[in-house]
Design a protein that fits this description.
There is one protein chain. By secondary structure, this protein is α/β, with parallel strands linked by helices. The protein folds into two domains: about 1-35; about 45-300, Metallo-beta-lactamase, Chain A, CATH 3.60.15.10. Helices cover about 30% and strands about 25% of the residues. It is built from ten helices and 15 strands. It has helices at about 1-25, 40-50, 85-95, 110-115, 120-125, 140-150, 210-215, 235-245, 265-270, 280; strands at about 55-60, 70, 75-80, 100-105, 125-130, 155, 165, 170-175, 190-195, 200, 225, 245-250, 275-280, 285-290, 295-300. An eight-stranded mixed sheet has the order 6-5-4-3-2-1-14-15, with helices on one face. The chain has a seven-stranded mixed sheet with strand order 7-8-9-10-11-12-13. Helix 3 (about 85-95) crosses helix 5 and helix 5 runs parallel beside helix 6 (about 140-150). The N and C termini lie far apart (about 85 Å).
């Protein structure tokens, strides 16, 4: 009996040594008694940001058009693909960044300045999920997108309002998708991306009508991708107050014939002390978030020819 107890004691001691070693390597902070023990929730949140690389968003200079590349770790997402003439330039640019696959490609709506180069993107990259509004148009540009999707056997999908999906460690909420074929701007897919404690709002070409609808939701964001290239049909004072961004990004062409961005929009942004970045003045705008802090850099690229 005494021998059996001795064996049990030895086994327990061995177990504690092994368990203690594992615990030491899993929780190195415990080796220092002066290091506070974080709560499990904080450990998990910090681990998510550490596991995924920094979030980067490229607001590409494609003139009077839109194209936005979002990267988190190995995950890639594209929102819009510029005009028809931008497609091959975008393909070359993305390939130079080493991109082979997009987890998500989103055409915010069926206007040529947002999906013009989309057929080239579909033709040249693997795409896991393709989203567009279910709003039919008969333009050659839209038909080219459908043809490319069919050739690659990629499903045309429309996300549901209030659906949520993940890109790496970023969470993306679908705030709005319209269906009125006669008003394509207001069919725009509106997205809110959250990464750690930072957030971004992407408006496509959505106008004040849509702004009023989504104002009932949590649309607060650190960065606002301004709707409809800064047109006076978007970015009302009330909307900007609800979003309360620190930064605004306007994708717009130099000397465009539409008068974008409008003086009214610029004034509304300036009145709220929102820092403005414009592709016609700054070129391609790269935003980086570590989950807490946001930084910007601007570069001149050849994506706009």
């Amino acid at each position: 009996m005494r021998r059996k107890k001795k064996q049990i004691s030895l086994l327990m001691a061995l177990f504690l040594v092994i368990f203690g070693s594992i615990f030491y390597f899993l929780e190195p902070s415990q080796a220092n008694p002066n290091t506070p023990t974080p709560t499990p929730e904080i450990v998990q949140a910090n681990q998510e940001i550490q596991d995924g690389e920094k979030l980067q968003i490229w607001f590409l200079d494609v003139g009077q058009a839109d194209s936005i590349l979002i990267q988190n770790g190995d995950a890639n997402m594209l929102i819009d693909a510029g005009n028809n003439e931008d497609g091959k330039k975008l393909v070359s640019y993305f390939q130079s960044l080493g991109i082979e696959t997009f987890q998500y490609v989103i055409g915010t709506h069926a206007h040529e300045d947002h999906i013009g180069g989309m057929d080239d993107i579909i033709d040249n990259f693997d795409i896991d999920t393709f989203y567009m509004p279910d709003a039919i148009t008969t333009t050659a540009t839209f038909e080219s997108v459908l043809d490319s999707l069919e050739a690659k056997k990629i499903a045309f999908q429309t996300p549901s309002i209030d659906s949520i999906f993940k890109l790496g460690n970023a969470t993306i909420d679908v705030l709005y998708v319209g269906t009125d074929d006669s008003d394509l701007n207001n069919t725009s897919i509106v997205l809110k991306l959250t990464y750690g404690n930072t957030s971004m709002l992407f408006m496509g070409d959505a106008e004040k009508e849509v702004e009023t609808i989504i104002e009932k939701k949590d649309i607060s964001a650190d960065v606002l991708k301004v709707g409809h290239h800064g047109s006076n049909t978007s970015s009302s004072k009330t909307f900007l107050e609800k979003v309360n961004p620190n930064y605004a990004i306007i994708s717009v062409g130099t000397g465009n014939s539409y008068g974008h961005p409008s003086n009214t929009t610029i004034q509304n942004l300036e009145n709220q002390n929102i820092q403005i970045y414009r592709t016609d003045e700054n070129g391609t705008i790269i935003m980086t978030s570590d989950g807490t802090n946001i930084t910007f850099q601007t570069i001149q690229t050849n994506t706009n020819g």
